[in-house]
Specification:
The complex is a heterodimer.
Chain A: H1 2-28, H2 31-103, E1 107-117, E2 120-126, E3 139-142, E4 145-153, E5 158-162, E6 170-174, E7 180-185, E8 191-197, E9 207-210, E10 222-231, E11 237-244, E12 253-257
Antiparallel strand pairs in A: 1-2, 1-12, 2-5, 3-4, 3-12, 4-5, 6-7, 6-9, 7-8, 8-11, 9-10, 10-11
Chain B: H1 2-19, H2 33-41, H3 47-62, H4 71-90, H5 96-117, H6 124-156
The chains are: A alpha+beta, B mainly alpha.
Chain lengths: 266, 157
């Protein structure tokens, strides 16, 4: 215990002497060096606090900037949405204009103002009627192809039965092999061409157009393309599935074909 | 980790010495909170640590007055040396009266060193005798509640 105390005393004295020596040396330094040591020490000691303070300030700035950018982003999103809407509308109108010019027939543009009229399942209401020259059984088309036919006419509006409506029927033809059949909708939104004998040549990928028979649709209007051909269970007719070119669910405008006649040279 | 805790304690002591001590100033004397902190640290830390921390704290006080850099180191290290020596040689257990006496003596020595080493025109006797005595007395009185509390905790430990 005594020895331990002695060692401690010696060590304590040694540390004390060293510190005092260093302190005297420090004190004997020139004024400029002393000031430089002091300022360096102060800046080093206070660096973490200054750093912390600056970080906090920058965080505050980031938060404010973040809020400002969020507000700006929300405004821009509204502008972008509007521009996208205009762009789509522009594309659609351009397409319609080109289509009208290409066809060179009398087309009446109608805007869809309603859907699902009770008496006419799968139909659409357009804002053109008898006063605009619309009559019953006139074909309704869009740039992609046939979309339906007029089934009811009012003075200022008409009801168009879409090609996907349960009661829709039309005479159709394979553009390549000229095979004729009856077009009718399936529940899946696709179409089928029935009454085509097993022996007839219809291949997947073939384009289906109106045949001109039946007195409603002129010959050669595009309908869709064949996606599947199979034999019916009765083994007499083919089962031909067709994907329509026009999306009946997505259209906003359509044309009523006022002037009849062949639209395609075929 | 223990040293770091002690270092933080000393930094707080220096901070209080620079800020709080002036609030309790009466005339020429103000309590030496840093020295009280060193004495309180001596309850738990070995004398060598107290010595090093006294040097660090003295240097920290010096950098705010670079002209006399090193003087606080000498003064407080000497004060801490006295505290450490008393712990080794005189009394190994904490005792209120003894701790108060050690603090009184240490403060007296520290302020005598200041009076001797810091050049000042006139009032030499006042600075050499009156101020160190006043500082020692005021610091001792000021530390009493803390010493009592620390002594109790030390006994309990």
């Amino acid at each position: 215990m005594i020895q331990r105390t002695k060692i401690s005393r010696k060590r304590l004295l040694l540390i004390y002497s060293t510190i005092i020596l260093i302190a005297i040396l420090l004190n004997s330094l020139g004024e400029v060096t002393k000031n430089s040591i002091a300022s360096n020490c102060v800046s080093t000691v206070f660096y973490p606090f200054r750093y912390g303070w600056n970080t906090m300030r920058s965080f505050k700035n980031y938060r404010e900037e973040n809020l400002r950018l969020k507000r700006e982003l929300a405004n821009l999103r509204v502008v972008v949405d509007r521009l996208l809407k205009y762009e789509k509308e522009n594309e659609r109108l351009k397409k319609i204009l080109n289509f009208k010019e290409e066809k060179g027939v009398s087309l009446l543009l109608g805007e869809i103002v309603g859907r699902g009229v009770p008496r006419y399942s799968g139909s659409a209401v357009v804002n053109v009627g008898a006063k605009d020259g619309v009559r019953k059984n006139l074909p309704a088309i869009v740039p992609e192809g046939v979309i339906g036919k007029v089934v009811h006419v009012n003075a200022r509006s008409s009801v168009v039965q879409l090609i996907t409506a349960p009661g829709f029927r039309a005479s159709a033809m394979d553009r390549r092999s000229r095979v004729v059949g009856i077009l009718q909708p399936k529940r899946t939104g696709q179409l089928i061409m029935s009454e085509v004998p097993l022996t007839e040549d219809v291949q997947p990928g073939d384009e289906i157009v109106t045949s001109g028979l039946g007195g409603v649709f002129p010959k050669g209007l595009r309908i869709g393309y064949v996606v599947d051909v199979s034999a019916n269970p009765d083994r007499i007719f083919k089962n031909i599935e067709i994907m329509p070119f026009a999306d009946a669910a997505g259209i906003e405008e359509l044309f009523i074909l006022l002037g009849s006649g062949e639209t395609d040279s075929l | 980790m223990k040293f770091l805790r002690a270092l933080i304690f000393v930094i707080v002591g220096v901070f209080l010495q620079l800020t709080l001590a002036e609030l309790f100033r009466i005339g020429d004397v103000a309590p030496d909170i840093f020295l009280i902190a060193l004495l309180l640290l001596a309850f738990t830390e070995p004398p060598e640590t107290i010595l090093i921390l006294a040097a660090v704290g003295g240097f920290a006080l010096d950098i705010f007055n670079p002209t006399y850099i090193g003087i606080s180191v000498i003064a407080y290290t000497t004060g801490a040396f006295l505290i450490g020596n008393s712990r080794i040689n005189l009394y190994s257990q904490t005792h209120f009266a003894f701790e108060s006496a050690v603090l009184f003596l240490s403060t007296l020595v520290v302020y005598v060193i200041f009076a001797v080493l810091i050049p000042n025109e006139g009032r030499f006797l006042v600075r050499l005798v009156d101020i160190p005595l006043g500082e020692a007395f005021y610091t001792t009185v000021f530390s009493m509640p803390l010493l009592l509390l620390a002594g109790r905790r030390s006994y309990a430990a």
